[in-house]
Fold:
Amino acid sequence: MAAARSAAPRTGRNMEALLIVVAIGLAIGAYAMVGLAVNDALPPGMLGYGAGLGALALVLHLVVRKFAPYADPTLLPLAMLLNGLGLVMIHRVDLALGKGFLGSAAFKQLLWTTLAVVAATVIIVWLRDHRQLSRYTYSAMAGGLVLLLLPLVPFLGRTVNGARIWIFIGPFSFQPSEIAKILLTIFFAGYLVTARDSLSLAGRKVLWMQLPRAKDLGPLLTAWGVTLAVLVFERDLGTSLLFFGLFIGLLYIATERVSWVVLGMGLFLGGAFVATQLFSHVQGRVNYWLHPFREDMIDSSTQIVQGIFGMASGGLIGTGLGEGSPYGTTLSYSQSDMIFAALGEELGLAGLFAILLAFALIVERGLRTGIAARDGFGKLFATGLALSMALQVFVVVGGITRVIPLTGLTLPFMAAGGSSLLANWMIIAILLRISDSSRRPPTASEGPLFDLPFDELPDELKNDPEFQEDRRRLGGQENEPNSQGIPVGHSRASEDQHYRSADTEHGWDDQPGLDEPEWDNRPRTGGHQLGQNTRRRPDAPDYDQESAVNR
Amino acid sequence: MNSPIRRLAAVITLLFASLFISVTYIQVVAAKELEDHPRNLRTIAKERSRERGQILAGTKVIANSKAVEDSAYPFLREYPNGQMYAPVTGYYALLSGTYGLENAENSYLSGTADELFLRSLTTMLTGEQPKGASVETTIVPAAQKAAWDALGDQRGAAVALDPKTGDILAMVSKPSYNPNKLSTHDTTASRDERARLNADELEPLINRSIAQLYPPGSTFKIVTAAAALSNGDYAPDSENNIDGSTTITLPQTTATISNSGMHACGDGSPTLLEAFADSCNTTFARMAMDLGQDIMQEQAAKFGFGQELTVPQTVAKSSFAEGELNEPQLAQSGIGQYEVRTTPLQVAMLSAGVANDGVVMRPNLVKRIFSADGKTVSERSPEELSEAVTSDVADQLTEMMTATVREGTATNAQISGIEVAGKTGTAQNQPGENPHAWFTAFAPADDPQVAVAVVVERGGNAGSEASGGRVAAPIAKAVMEAVIK
Structure:
C-alpha cells in the first residue's frame, strides 16, 4: 500500500505513445515493401507518408493526453495501424493501376484520414461528457433514419454494385449509413436507458420464455420494418443486418431478456426469407452467395469468386506486398469493398489473422469500456459502438469469405471511402471519451465518502460496525502511523491520492474495482475496503438518476 | 447491465471465430482446389505466362505452346491435327479446365511437378518455376492417321496396342472436336465452343476408345472360348459339348437365342473352331450356361474386366455382370449381350492377351517424359497386368481366330502375305437401333506386333445391314497394315 501510494496514477498515455510508434512503424515498413516489390527501390514518398501519418497520430495522441488522459490506450494505436495498412494497400493498387499521386485513391484516402482525425479531435475536445449526447436522443433518431433512408431519394441515391447505399452530390459520394450508425446508436442507448424498465416487464410465458408484453412490441416492430425496407429497397443485407443486430443487441443488454433476441431474430430471419422469395434481386444475391462457382452463376458472381481466388492464392503467408495481382481483371473493387481479399492475397492467412485480431481488440476494448462505464447511457452507448464495429467487420469479411451474402459495406479504417473513415474515427473518439470518464479517478470535488464529516455520512454506514472499525484504525488515532504503515491525520489531498493509486494500481488492465464499477448497486453497508466502497460520489450530479437506472 | 454485455461479448467472439474459420478454409484447406479451378484467372494467367511442355507422337508434335504477341497471355496452346489427336492430347481450355493428357500430366507439362524442381539446382536456388516438361506418347502417327481415315465420318472408336508392351499405338474417337477452339485466348469463343460441345448430342468430348462402354457382342466369345478351353472338356477340333442347333430356348422362359441368318451352326455338329469362326450364338450361349457365372466372370476379370486402369487417362471399368445372373441372362452374357459392357480398349486387350501368349500387358499411352533441357524425367517399362490364359490356350485361341479371318466371318481383314487373327462382333443395341459393328484382331499371328479393336456405332454407313466383318474389319485391317508396314 505504501508503494502504491507513492506511485503516480498511471494513465497509460506512455504506453499509447509506444504502441502508436509500433503501429506507424509497421505501416511505414509495409509501404517500403510495396515500393521495393513494385519498383525495386524504397519509395520516394515513404518519408512523407510516414511523416503525414505520424503527424496525425501525434496530434491525436497529444489531444488525448490533454483532454482525455485516462482514455483506453490501445484504441488509438489499433485504429492507426489498420488505417495505415489500409492506406498502403490502396497505394499499392494505385501503383498497379498507374495512377498519379494527386489523382490516386491513396491521396484521397490520406485527405479523408486527416479530416477524420480532425473530427475525432473535435469530439474529444468538445465532448467533455458523453452524457451530453443523451439529450439528443430523438434528434439522433430522426437524423439517423433520414440518413439511413437517404439513398432511396431519387437522383440522390445511386445503385453501386447492386446495393443502393450511396448518395451522390456532384462529384462527392457518401455512404450515409456510416454516420447513421453513430446517430442511431445514440438513439438506441438514450431510448433504451429510459424505456428498459417497461420493456423488461414480462408478459405471457411461452415454453421457457417470458415474452414481452404485446404493447411493448412497438419499437421492435418499427426497427424491424425499417431494416426490412433497407434490405428490400437498398438491396443490402449487410446494412440491414448491421442495424437490426445493433438494435437487438442493445435491447438485450438493456432488458436482459433473451425473449427479445429470439423474437427479433425470428422476425428478421422470417422477413429476410420472405424477401428472398418475393424479390428476385434479393434472391440473386443469395444465389451468388450459395453457389458462386456454379456454371450458370460464375459470370454474375465474379466479384466474390475473384476475391476467393485471390485469397486462395495468398495461402498461409501471402505473396508479399506488391507481389500479387489484386487489381484489374483478377480483383475489382480491391481498394474498397474487396480490400480484405486484396490484403489476404498479399499478406496471407497470417496477415488476415493479425488484421482480424486488431479489429477484435478494438471491439473488446469497446465492450470493456461499456462494462466500465459508470452510467447506463454510457454503457449502452459504448457497447453499441463496439457492437456496430463488430457487426460491420463480420458483415464485410463474412460477405467476402461466404459466411453470409456479400454486401456493399466497407471494412472499417481500411477500405477507401471517406464516410467510413470519418464515422469510424468518430467512434474511436467517442470510445476514448467514455473510457476516459470511466477510468478517471474521482476528482477532489467528488472525493471519497470517507472524507465527509462523520455527521454527514448516511446512517446505515455510520452504524456499520465494520466501517467503524476501519475508521477507528485509520483515522481514530491522530497523527500516528497505523498498523499498515499509512500515516493518519493526512490531508484530504493525500487521501485522494491514496484512493487514486489504489484505483489505478493495476494500470489500465482488468481490475476488479474497475471492471465492476456498479458501485451504486452495492449495498451501502458492504465491505469497506478502502478505495472501493468509498469511491462513491454523493454529490455527483445525476447520481440518483443513475442509480435508479442501473438497478 | 454488465453480465448481458459479457454474454454479448461471447456472441461476438463466435462471430469473429466464424471469420477466422472461413478465412482459414479459403486460404489453407480449399486453397489448392481453388487454385486449380478452371475459372481462376490467376492460375490461367500464371500458367499461360510460361512455356508449357510439348506432347509428341513419335517425333511428331501434337500439342505445342507458341509464344504469341498482342494476346491476353504470352503463350498459346496449339494442336496440329487437333481433331485426330484430341482423344490423346485432350484439351487445355481457357476457362473450362484441362482434359486428357493435358490434365493427367499437367504437373509435368506445366512444370510444377516436384521432380522438375529438384532436378535443377538453379531453379531450386532461385525458386524460379522450371519450364514445362514434354510428354512423348506411344502413338504411332501412321496408325493414328490410318484409323482416323478408315473410320471416315462414322461414329465409333479404334484402339491399337502393342501386345508385347501394352503401348497404345493408335487411339481414335469419332466424332471428335478441335481443341484449338478451346485453348484460344478469346474468352467468349472458348466458352461458346465449350457450351456447343457440351450441348452436342453426339458427345464429341467423350473419348470413346476408353471412356465409353458398349455391349461387345460376339467379340466377347473370345472370353467364353478362353473360359471353355481353360476349364472344361473342350478343344478347337473337338465336337465335345458343342451345341450346333439353329435356335435354343432359354431355360425357364420362352425366349430363344438363334444364330445369325437362322441357320444351323456348320453342319449341325460343328467343332469349337467352326463354331467360333462362324460366330455361332447358340454354341456360346450354351457354353456359358454350362460353365457357370463364376468361371465366366473370373475369365473376364483375367482379361482386365473390373480393373481400375489409367493410361494415364482414367479408363471406364468394363464389366461382365452387375449381379447374380440366372441361366437365360448367363446365356445372353456368353455372347456379349445382356449386361456385358466393355470399352474398345478392353476389347483390344482381349486380342492383345491372346497374342502375347496369354499375358495381358498393362495398357499405356506415355512412353517418356523429358525436361526442357532434354533429360529424361521418367520412362515407362512394360508391365504385366495379368495372365489371362495359359500359353497353350492362347495358341488354341490364336488358331481359332486365324480361322475366323481365313475362312470365317472376318475375311475382310485379310492382309496379303500376313496371317491375321481376329473376331467379329455385331452387338445388339437398344431395340429399334442398328447394331454396333465390332472387330478385334492381331497380326501377324505368329509374331504379333499389333492388336486392335474397332467399334462402329449403330452400324455406321451400312446401317441395319451392318456386321462386324463388313464394317469394322476393314478399318482394323488398315490400322494393322499401318503398324506392320
User: Anything to note?
Assistant: The radius of gyration of chain A is 26 Å. Strands of chain A lie at 157-160, 163-169, 172-174, 202-206, 209-212. Chain A has 20 helices and five strands. Residues 339-372 of chain A form the longest helix (34 residues).
